[in-house]
C-alpha cells in the first residue's frame, strides 16, 4: 500500500513539474495576417517589393518573440496576388476572409486599395493601407480602413509649398509647369490637385497630359513638351512609365529647369538611379521616405540590398505599416477583428523609422504622416527638405 501511495505521489509531483513550465510558456495560437499586393501584371515590381517589406517585418516580429500581447503568438502570413486589377484584389479579400485572417495589409495601388478596403469592410476586417495615396480611400467613412503613410493631398500641398520656396530663393526663374500623369486614380487625383494649387503660387500650368498604363512610347508627349517648353515638368506615374518618360526627355534633349516629381514612381528609387544614373541626376521628388538619420532604416536597407533587392519606398512603407498593425494587435491582446480595429484607431505607435512621430489616426488617416523632399545628387538620393532631415542643400534650378 505504501509503495502504491509513494508511486502516486511521485507521479503527481512529476506531472506538476512538467505541467507548470508548459503553462508558463504556452504560446498563443498563430495569428493569420493577409498580405495582399499586385505581384503579377503591370505593377508586379512594386507589388513584389511591398510583399517583401511585409514578410521582412513578419520575420523580424516572429524572431523577436512573436506577438507579446498574445503570449508570443507567431504571425502567419496569408499571401494574395491582386494581379494589378482592383476586381481581383477584392476577390482575394474574400479568400482571405474565408481563410480566417485577423487583418490585411496592402494593396499598394490606389485603385486596388479602394476595392480591397471596401471588400474587407463587408466582413469588418481591419485593413491597413501601405501605400495607396488617393484620399478617397480614407474619406468614405469605412471604420476598418487605416493608412499609415501620407495621402496625395498632403504630398501635393508639401510639394507645391516647397517648390514656391525653392523658386523664390533662386530668384523665381521658373514660371511655367507641365504635368504628365498616369490615367488611374493615383495619377489623375495627384494631377488635379497640382493643377488647382500651382496657379495660387504664381505658376502657369501650360498643359496637363494623361497617359495609359502601360505606355511604351512617350515620343509624342515629349515632342509636345518641346513645343510648350515648360520651366518645370511634373510627372506623377508608376515606375515603368516614369523611367521611360525621363529617358525619352533625355534622348530628345529636353532639359527643363527642373523635373519636380510628386510621388514619382521612379524619382526616389535606387533602382532607377542604378539603371539610368544620367537621366535620374538632379530630379527632385516629394515622396514617401524614411528618416535618414535613424540607424534602423539604414540597417534594414543593408539587409534588403544583401538580398539583391533595392530599398524602395514600397519595402519600407509596407514594413512599417506591418509593424503598426502588429503593435495594434499586441495592444488589443486579441486576434478579434473589432478589438484590432479599435486598437488601430487609437494607436500612438512610435517605434518606427519614418519621419512621422507617434501615430495619430483621424478617420483612418495617420495625420502625423509626412513626405520628405529628396533630390538625386552625386549619384545618391539625398533628403533636401525639411531641415531636420536634410542631407544636402537643394540644387534649383538644375544647370542644363
Describe the secondary structure blueprint for this structure.
Elements: H1 2-25, E1 31-37, H2 44-63, E2 75-81, H3 86-98, E3 103-106, H4 110-121, E4 127-129, E5 145-147, H5 152-169, E6 176-182, H6 185-197, E7 204-211, H7 219-228, E8 232-236, H8 239-251, E9 258-262, H9 270-275, H10 277-280, E10 284-287, H11 295-306, H12 313-332, H13 337-345, E11 361-362, E12 365-366, E13 372-377, E14 380-385
Parallel strand pairs: 1-2, 1-3, 3-4, 4-5, 6-7, 6-8, 8-9, 9-10
Antiparallel strand pairs: 10-13, 11-12, 13-14
Which keywords apply here?
400 residues, alpha/beta, Rossmann fold, 7-stranded mixed β-sheet, 5-stranded parallel β-sheet, 44% helix, globular
Main sheet: strand order = 7-6-8-9-10-13-14
- What name does the CATH topology of the largest domain carry? Rossmann fold
So how many helices? Answer: 13
Rg on CA atoms, Å: 24 Å
How many domains?
2
CATH architect. name of the largest domain: 3-Layer(aba) Sandwich
- Residue share in β-strands: 15-25%
CATH superfamily of the largest domain: Response regulator
Highest-level CATH class of the largest domain: Alpha Beta
Outline: globular
**Percentage of residues assigned to helices:** 40-55%
What is the first-to-last residue Cα distance? 102 Å
Overall number of strands: 14
Determine the mean pLDDT. 94
Which oligomeric form is depicted? single chain
Largest sheet at a glance?
A: 7 strands, mixed
- Which spans have pLDDT < 50 for at least 5 consecutive residues? 12-24
Report the structural category. alpha/beta
Q: What are the secondary-structure elements, in order, as H or E?
A: HEHEHEHEEHEHEHEHEHHEHHHEEEE
Amino acid at each position: 500500500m505504501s509503495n502504491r501511495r509513494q508511486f502516486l505521489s511521485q507521479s503527481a509531483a512529476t506531472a506538476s513539474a512538467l505541467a507548470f513550465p508548459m503553462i508558463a510558456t504556452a504560446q498563443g495560437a498563430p495569428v493569420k495576417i493577409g498580405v495582399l499586393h499586385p505581384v503579377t501584371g503591370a505593377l508586379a515590381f512594386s507589388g513584389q517589393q511591398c510583399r517583401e517589406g511585409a514578410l521582412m517585418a513578419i520575420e523580424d516580429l516572429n524572431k523577436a518573440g512573436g506577438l507579446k500581447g498574445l503570449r508570443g503568438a507567431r504571425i502567419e502570413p496569408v499571401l494574395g496576388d491582386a494581379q494589378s486589377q482592383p476586381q481581383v484584389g477584392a476577390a482575394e479579400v474574400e479568400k482571405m476572409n474565408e481563410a480566417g485572417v485577423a487583418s490585411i495589409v496592402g494593396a499598394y495601388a490606389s485603385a486596388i486599395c479602394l476595392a480591397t478596403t471596401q471588400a474587407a469592410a463587408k466582413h469588418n476586417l481591419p485593413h491597413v493601407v501601405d501605400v495607396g495615396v488617393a484620399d478617397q480611400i480614407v474619406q468614405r467613412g469605412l471604420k476598418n480602413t487605416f493608412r499609415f503613410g501620407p495621402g496625395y493631398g498632403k504630398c501635393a500641398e508639401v510639394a507645391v509649398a516647397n517648390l514656391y520656396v525653392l523658386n523664390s530663393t533662386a530668384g523665381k526663374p521658373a514660371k511655367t509647369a507641365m504635368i504628365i500623369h498616369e490615367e488611374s486614380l493615383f495619377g489623375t487625383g495627384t494631377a488635379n490637385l497640382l493643377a488647382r494649387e500651382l496657379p495660387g503660387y504664381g505658376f502657369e500650368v501650360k498643359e496637363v497630359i494623361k497617359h495609359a498604363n502601360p505606355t511604351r512610347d512617350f515620343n509624342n508627349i515629349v515632342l509636345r513638351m518641346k513645343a510648350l517648353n515648360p520651366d518645370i515638368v511634373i510627372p506623377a506615374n508608376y515606375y515603368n512609365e516614369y523611367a521611360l518618360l525621363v529617358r525619352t526627355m533625355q534622348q530628345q534633349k529636353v532639359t527643363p529647369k527642373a523635373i519636380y516629381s510628386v510621388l514619382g514612381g521612379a524619382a526616389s528609387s535606387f533602382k532607377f538611379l542604378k539603371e539610368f544614373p544620367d537621366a535620374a541626376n538632379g530630379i527632385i521628388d516629394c515622396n514617401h521616405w524614411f528618416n535618414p538619420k535613424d540607424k534602423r532604416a539604414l540597417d534594414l536597407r543593408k539587409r534588403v540590398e544583401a538580398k539583391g533587392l533595392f530599398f524602395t519606398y514600397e519595402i519600407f512603407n509596407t514594413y512599417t505599416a506591418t509593424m503598426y498593425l502588429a503593435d495594434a494587435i499586441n495592444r488589443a491582446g486579441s486576434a478579434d477583428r473589432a478589438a484590432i480595429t479599435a486598437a488601430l484607431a487609437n494607436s500612438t505607435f512610435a517605434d518606427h523609422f519614418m519621419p512621422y512621430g507617434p501615430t495619430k489616426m483621424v478617420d483612418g488617416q495617420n495625420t502625423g504622416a509626412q513626405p520628405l523632399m529628396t533630390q538625386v545628387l552625386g549619384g545618391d538620393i539625398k533628403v533636401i527638405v525639411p531641415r531636420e532631415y536634410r542631407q544636402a542643400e537643394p540644387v534649383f534650378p538644375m544647370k542644363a
